[in-house]
Specification:
By secondary structure, the protein is an alpha/beta fold. It contains eight helices and seven strands, in the order βαβαβαβαβαβαααβ.
Amino acid sequence: MPGRLRGKVAIVTGAGGGIGRAVCLAFADEGAALVCSDINRESAGETAAQVRSRGGRAVAIVGDLAREQTASELVAAARAEFGGLTIVVNSAVRDARYLPVTELPLAEWQATIDANLTGPFLLLKHAIPVMIAGGGGSIVLIASQLARAPKPGRAWYASQKGALLSLAKALAVDHAAQNIRANTLSPGPTADQRFLGQWPSEAEAHRNAATLFGRLGTPAEMAAGAVFLASDESSFMTGTDLLIDGGYTTV
């Protein structure tokens, strides 16, 4: 039912991407106000504009999550524009080349660590005190089915997404007493530009989805999971992972 996030304020990182944008739109439809963060100015602005065109409230903040100043700016924007913070969704990701660790340059490994693991740490370091002051909230870290079932050349990605699974568990233990829940959402292969761009055609991408349904998931299907984890419908869930992978990990 609409309104499951009415009165909530959310920061969504990676808001310009397929899943991040879908999360922003779904949250707005459920009543949340949005701080839409992305490293790409045009993409962040477009997502915020789409939220507003649907009658929602949103601001766009551009920044590199590997910088602590970006985390501070995002939290400050949530407080200044909407009066607080109740939800954090980390959907931002930085990619590296698909290479085994024996061939991956240290600079690429470190750049992905900085964005994909240190970035969430920095954001939560600044966000959690504000969430506590407001009475609690929900943290959703976007992980991946590849944390369970890696593919060749993705050691950097599988290990960092696996670390997010453990980070959510640790956050759940540390902050349950402050009414903060922390979970991960693990999408399977999803029909966004990040995945589709790896194949010569969309049809070829779906044929290589490796799911039991023979197709890719949609960003909206992943966003529905994020709405559930952010809302009171999941009030007894913390420290766990919501896997939405079309059966990928059973194949």
